[in-house]
Predict the structure.
Amino acid sequence: MGKLVALVLLGVGLSLVGEMFLAFRERMNASREVEPVEPENCRLIEELENGSEDIDILPGGLAFISSGLKYPGLQNFAPDEPGKIFLMDLNEQNPRAQALEISGGFDKELFNPHGISIFIDKDHTVYLYVVNHPHMKSTVEIFKFEEQQRSLVYLKTIKHELLKSPKEVKVVAKGFRSANGITVSADQKYVYAADIAAKNIHIMEKHDNWDLTQLKVIQLGTLVDNLTVDPATGDILAGCHPNLMKLLNYNPEDPPGSEVLRIQNVLSEKPRVSTVYANNGSVLQGTSVASVYRGKILIGTVFHKTLYCEL
């Protein structure tokens, strides 16, 4: 009788594990493929061969790109090279990427850049806040951009188990499975946050005290990474992973695809979602971000190449 009960329990357990595995595969879009969509006049950026995980563009058209991310479980084509911040001037007819020199005593050999954000102060000084993973830990590095020299000056490392600010840390929004890319609207009134595991974007109103009120959740059916805002239209651009399992279990014979979505009229009752770019890995693998400037789009990846197209 005991053996029978054990076998029954084993069967139930295996059944539950099977259901959990199938549910996990469904959440990760394990079998999803995309129909190719390509804008006009696309070209790969020669200097960016080892990823462009995040991209932030100044109002004047200078694009900052974090490259060379090394993270457990992710492919890396240059494991012995330190990460870099690249700069592209999108006003040029055929812009190229150049790696920025970093002064100020920063340990460049341990640079493992991830997300990147820009802050411009009242004197128009540009600061870069870069998520870094030295020794697979997490810090935020602060740099000042020297436009004349086209270089970065290292200022400070924020290092804390909660990356706590000097004043306070407080919870302003809940209900995420895995909050990832975060950005704000052009008028600074709304915060957009991607939930990669739930395949959606949260639209929240920002108050003066930085409390957030959730207005809506836009379901996208794909795993959303970083978000940017089109400064000309206010649309959201989302770099997405159509098949995260392929990203996490890299196979060059069956590589992960890429997908970029545009979300228009985000505050309306029926936001419009359209595909800007889609590829099953033959050109671009593992898209993480897309950013636009004056009819051009830069599409970045976690560890692969970078694409520059006309819209």
